[in-house]
Design goal:
The structure is a homotetramer. By secondary structure, the first copy, chain A, is of the alpha/beta class. The first copy, chain A, is about 40% helix and about 20% strand.
Chain lengths: ~350, ~350, ~350, ~350
Amino acid sequence: MIYFNCDYNEGAHEKIMQQLLLTNMEQTAGYGCDEYCSRAKQLILEECKAPYAEVHFLTGGTQTNATVIAAALRPHMGVLAADGAHINVHETGAVEAGGHKVLTLKAKEGKISAKQVGNACLAHINDEAHEHMVRPGMVYISQPTELGTLYSLKELTELAEACNKYHLLLYADGARLGYGLASPENDVTLADMARLCDVFYIGGTKVGALFGEAVVITNDTLKEDFRYIIKQQGAMLAKGRLLGIQFQTLFKDGLYMEISRHAIALAEKIRAALRDKKIPFYVENSTNQIFPILSDKVLDILGKDYVLEYQARIDDTHSAVRICTSWATGEEAVEKLCHDLTDLL
Amino acid sequence: MIYFNCDYNEGAHEKIMQQLLLTNMEQTAGYGCDEYCSRAKQLILEECKAPYAEVHFLTGGTQTNATVIAAALRPHMGVLAADGAHINVHETGAVEAGGHKVLTLKAKEGKISAKQVGNACLAHINDEAHEHMVRPGMVYISQPTELGTLYSLKELTELAEACNKYHLLLYADGARLGYGLASPENDVTLADMARLCDVFYIGGTKVGALFGEAVVITNDTLKEDFRYIIKQQGAMLAKGRLLGIQFQTLFKDGLYMEISRHAIALAEKIRAALRDKKIPFYVENSTNQIFPILSDKVLDILGKDYVLEYQARIDDTHSAVRICTSWATGEEAVEKLCHDLTDLL
Amino acid sequence: MIYFNCDYNEGAHEKIMQQLLLTNMEQTAGYGCDEYCSRAKQLILEECKAPYAEVHFLTGGTQTNATVIAAALRPHMGVLAADGAHINVHETGAVEAGGHKVLTLKAKEGKISAKQVGNACLAHINDEAHEHMVRPGMVYISQPTELGTLYSLKELTELAEACNKYHLLLYADGARLGYGLASPENDVTLADMARLCDVFYIGGTKVGALFGEAVVITNDTLKEDFRYIIKQQGAMLAKGRLLGIQFQTLFKDGLYMEISRHAIALAEKIRAALRDKKIPFYVENSTNQIFPILSDKVLDILGKDYVLEYQARIDDTHSAVRICTSWATGEEAVEKLCHDLTDLL
Amino acid sequence: MIYFNCDYNEGAHEKIMQQLLLTNMEQTAGYGCDEYCSRAKQLILEECKAPYAEVHFLTGGTQTNATVIAAALRPHMGVLAADGAHINVHETGAVEAGGHKVLTLKAKEGKISAKQVGNACLAHINDEAHEHMVRPGMVYISQPTELGTLYSLKELTELAEACNKYHLLLYADGARLGYGLASPENDVTLADMARLCDVFYIGGTKVGALFGEAVVITNDTLKEDFRYIIKQQGAMLAKGRLLGIQFQTLFKDGLYMEISRHAIALAEKIRAALRDKKIPFYVENSTNQIFPILSDKVLDILGKDYVLEYQARIDDTHSAVRICTSWATGEEAVEKLCHDLTDLL
């Protein structure tokens, strides 16, 4: 079986494994206070063109979201997010367990707009009973979104302006950020992210690392005591250097972008094969997740060789599925899939 | 100005004030362990025909909801509720502050159905990623709802069956329960509530008391240590007898139902006056809240003498407003309003 | 039986009951946005000589403590408090339920010192692992303390200085503040409290009211959105005017101090009777709580006519008990008690 | 510099690194639902002689403690623990952030006794105000303790009996469990742990793994929905197989015990060198942490070559320090240290 269902089926990029091996018996300070973390942070800040920012390494996405939100909000504040946002749907209520409500906005292809944010804030402010309601304190977006779509620089800039206007923090979940940055349609750089967001994270787990997310904090208020919150959330890795070593490897000599482009190139091949056969898509995007709508018959046959992920039922005989590529996806696997798709469709 | 905007504009029924005065300098045990509380509980259990149940007195609705939900759910569980439910919209995220997500269902005239509950549970169970999602652990309804509508005995029975089937607790917020019980359309008794719900509360604040809600717990598991949770939630009144005295008065000689019927009779008069003039309603109901759709012009004129509550904008020249009657509403006030409405419309 | 066990055995001062009766059928805005609350706040701010401060009314002490602490601290911060502090021992973990640790200091006669606070902060700062420890964010004291002792103006000033130095908020729980202010040994005024504390509350429940505590916030940061937190904590009374009416009555024409002095005068009588007989005290103080150490034999006999509160076992044949006076204590009850004590001892 | 300050200065045992490399590009299911996790669980259950138990893998200790406690306790319950317990001192209030109070007992050499547990429970039950106090719901111990001491089988059995008697869960933090099991003084087996505890964890981070703790749950109630809580706590690793692979390696062919014995043998050498010179110990123990009391002069000289951890100030010229050995400690490093100690002392 070949797994195309998600982008975390394998271990880590071989260069990371080499570095982990090479440094394995070195003795370093714990909890991220080692030299590897320092250098990795430096490399990331350079890419972000944000020397004033802070970087922290955490292990996984849900943990990172819970930590950032706990650090950022007072108890009566909530997070504006797309209805399909990861924090709203797939984190077993970690945000609520931390005491905060997710205030959902109806997303369009996974995205929310500055206008929706502004309207939500105005509605709150203008409601006589607003003290009886959760106050919006943050906007959470994913770049790329759960559906693989991207905020354009214009959209992101407008969101940042709305956040400034209504005193909200802007937080971007970049679990798949590499695949967004590498997309042919993308016009947002890491430096833009750092300039426009109060905090965002650069995903490692899905982009070449064994695990790990790099949180970049540009907002001074949020920097204060952030490491206490990391520890409280059970998110401070004893051997923190494991994260430093991984991110140092990813951000040295452009590896992060190189492997992201690899995934995007393969995704484009699969997309082209599907387009050739006029297969419709559940949502159009240009990142590493592809959402074709296929017939049950085709899916049955594909299911013998490939693991795809069910996304949504479309009609009596069709479903949308998710096909993911990643840093680890092999050319041959993609060629075989394209070949089989062409044959089948 | 005459206030028709809500049902908590005045103090308490005169009989309650008399009892409070009469007992004022008596010395009793604190924290609800006094004789007045005991007797009030007894009277309530008799009305509920539920000798096996437990009664606890709390001060207000948000506090009661937060306490019941905290006592009932494990951390990963959420509460299924109407999207317009008080706990979802008007409690400043108290449920989330307690760590739990409100899982919203699209309500129809304020109500949710057993079918919606069943579908939500099935969707949860059948989702491969259900461990990544909040598990439904309770159904929260209001009787009457925020929009003054009522669950019929059939609907309530079906909800209770769905809850049994999917291992959910059924909790009814009865902030205005008296006005539901007194409605001409109602077919649910207090005994039905006790039989069908795992826990519900009988509202005092809006039905004759200075403050106070009587929580009736029928589910044995939920009874355990409930007073610890009350205390932890800051909801254990030092002079608990104040609640006992009030509820004893309300449940002696049928006062609770008598004053509820008074409110309903007056609401019916206002409704009749509006119907006479073919005024449409935002939602039809038979309890103490009336939601007529009136023109801006009419609302402007009414606004000189009456305080009504804005509910929703309907079109460019019309809004729905809320008119409430209560145990405290005077006949003359209602007659004046009906007269003015008839004149104006 | 005559209850001397605590100071919340009766209802409210008769003037409060009269005002509640008098205003009972008035219609006012809800949630503390009425004229009675405004006037009560004004009166309190005048007594505090703190026109810049904010006043909020809540129902009870545990609720007030939980609300103030939730509003004040970020998640990784804890509250320094005496080991016997109410928040540490008698609130069923309400502070922890809100996410914060109580960091205990060994109290001396119920009190903690500026030096202890400073040492705790220094120990935290100097510990290399301080990010792994709860950061002190607030000092909680009671004035008077649980043991009826008082912070002198000098002690309170030193605490405030230590708090400034180490960036801590100073919060005083004044559940029995009136009895402190009225004590012959006291040298701290309400204006001192307002000047030295970031936030404190003036207790009503134990000093003449049916219920109610008036929170005075002088720190600007803490003022922000405080009403949201009140609502979230289930502490916003629908008929908020009940609190306004009570505090307006207490702070008009000096009633609060008058009834507090009454309690203190009676306490002094009981103390004198005990001193006459050379009865030792568990702790010496000058407020409304008296802690004599009595023999089992004496306690047995007293137990037939009086309810006292057990405090601590002293030796094989003696226990310390608590005798409370209050605004409601009658002269005759005290005379009878003094007489019986004199006879017995 | 040679680090003897803690037991997590290096990466992982070479066999673990080999397995991670070997399996790196395999595709597996995520979130711990892979074959490596299954096999690792099987191996652990066999060692525990507890086929009925459940095993879950988490990343670190604080995370594991927070998850277990969140899963186990209702909101009003607290955890009885030694005053020096890791959850009380070094987890930035993670337990409190989850809503629960740590109820401390004065430890003797890091340990608490069944008698102390019983007394705490009796004191709670017998206090008239127990509903105003946090109810003990769990006993937390560390095996070995923070001070490297061990509970004997007799002590552990008595604790388990006290827990049964008072309806408490018994939870053992086994961050350094291997070093306890390998100690010459130890008489507690893994099977004893499984038989006597409701839940405990077998530490990997400090015993050969890059990271990872294996939670063993024997109590049926606690098993329910545990994975939801893991996810909610941000503790579910996307590439869960990393944990499975590590624990499979550790529990195959006795590697876990073998490397633990290595650490203990080296610790014994250091202890012997210190004893030879009549150096006193801050606490006597037989595991991998050694706490000698050394003079400032000696510590200064040692500080040029070795990193030790400060433990406590003993007198004007002496401090206790911690010297740790681990699976990774080299023979030569220990020989050099022993040699230098012998020279210096």
